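Troubleshooting entry. The earlier prediction with zinc ion gave an output that would not parse, so I re-checked the input for stray whitespace and re-submitted. Clean input:
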Amino acid sequence: MKRNFTKYIGLAFFVAGVCILIFALSTGQIFFILFGGIWTAVGFYKFSRIRKLQTKNFAWYKNKYPGAISEQGKVSCYACSNRSVRIRNLFQGTFTREHLCGECGATLFYSEEG
Ligand SMILES: [Zn+2]
């Protein structure tokens, strides 16, 4: 659940950034306007990126491309129907693995690092 932790850190930065920004705008302090603006942007970016990765999970893939999952539960590529799925770590503090097609390289879905 490191990923959720990172997501809420992002959310905390965003909320703190907005508070600093409101305070700075009401008092007209340029430095804190910049500071709050950066926190708001960075926090929002981190939060929305992880939320997007969490949304595109296996259940999402199964729901969106029901034909790409065989009756035995085997995953195939939605684009080229190839059955070889590669997994790679995304890093960048996302604690996420990307599942991609071994043939055409299309991203299929994401899962959390075990
Ligand atoms: Zn493919």
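This one parsed fine. DSSP finds three helices and three strands in the chain.
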